[in-house]
Write a structure and sequence with these properties.
This protein is mainly alpha-helical. The chain has helices at 18-22, 55-71, 76-90, 96-116, 121-138, 142-159, 167-178, 189-202, 207-220, 223-243, 250-271; strands spanning 9-10, 13-14. Strands 1-2 form a two-stranded antiparallel ribbon.
């Protein structure tokens, strides 16, 4: 998305995008509402923005996590670390088939884990993250997965709200922000705002929390909040570059730097409008 504060790292690699990417397709599912014309084919779902140059590292992490789990399939830590590794490798999937296969592997590890260790937040969190990867491949069946995803994130957040730098609240916020609203799905602007702001409150030093908030204000055209949070992130980034260092963060800085340029460009266009 951590061991306590850092439990959502793969060799310190953070996870944070998956559930937000899940619901990119859910708006398209409105086409399946009663009375709407049925689409002729599954729409093209955008993949994560992580560069493929980092896929090899994610694959090595997955291979290592599989070996650790196979050495002792009863080990709780090895199980959720494999679930985490499946999610992270799926961020670099180049097809729905590959993404679904990795998501299903993570789910198959995490479902038994939450039965064996129901109070372990990592089990629920990485189950949700892999459900998210699977939902991205299912199109019309995705809505059936979303409720379980929401439930798992809620459990993880209740047990450890700071998991993966406030990952449960961040991901719930993205889910509520991007999913269609009632009666088709669970989308809620009010809930999205609540959870995204909570993520920043819980983990104010983590850039991703600020990026998703800024991208939300851009989408909602909330100029006042946008300018404030642009200033906050601009002040935060130099410190974050010193805090989140090393090759394990390279994929994320590559992603963040591109998103920062995009956010600044979009914000400049929005803020100059009357």
């Amino acid at each position: 998305m951590k061991r306590s504060k850092n439990c959502a790292t793969l060799n310190s690699t953070p996870l944070h995008r998956g559930v937000g990417m899940v619901v990119m397709l859910l708006g398209l599912l409105a086409l399946a509402a009663p009375g709407a014309p049925a689409p002729k084919k599954q729409p093209e779902i955008p993949l994560a923005s992580f560069s493929q140059e980092f896929a090899e590292s994610a694959q090595r992490q997955l291979v290592g996590a599989r070996k650790q789990f196979q050495a002792d399939t009863t080990a709780v830590t090895a199980a959720w670390e494999l679930g985490r590794a499946c999610f992270w490798r799926a961020e670099f999937a180049t097809s729905n088939e590959e993404r679904a296969r990795l998501g299903e592997e993570g789910i198959a590890v995490c479902r038994p884990l939450i039965i064996r260790a129901p109070t372990l937040p990592e089990g629920h969190y990485y189950l949700a993250m892999n459900l998210g990867q699977l939902a991205r491949t299912k199109w019309l069946d995705a809505l059936g997965i979303v409720k379980e995803l929401e439930h798992s994130l809620g459990l993880a957040g209740a047990m450890n709200p700071r998991l993966d730098h406030a990952g449960p609240d961040r991901c719930l916020g993205l889910l509520y922000r991007d999913a269609p609203g009632w009666p088709l799905s669970i989308g809620s602007k009010t809930k999205a705002r609540q959870h995204l702001l909570k993520a920043v409150e819980l983990a104010p030093d983590f850039p991703e929390n600020h990026f998703v908030l800024i991208e939300t204000w851009l989408g909602w055209k909330e100029k006042k909040r946008l300018q404030h949070d642009l200033d906050v992130l601009n002040a935060l980034l130099p410190k974050a570059r010193r805090q989140f260092t090393g090759g394990e963060w390279a994929a994320h800085w590559d992603d963040w730097e591109r998103r920062w340029k995009d956010a600044q460009t979009r914000a400049a266009e929005l803020l100059k409008r009357k």
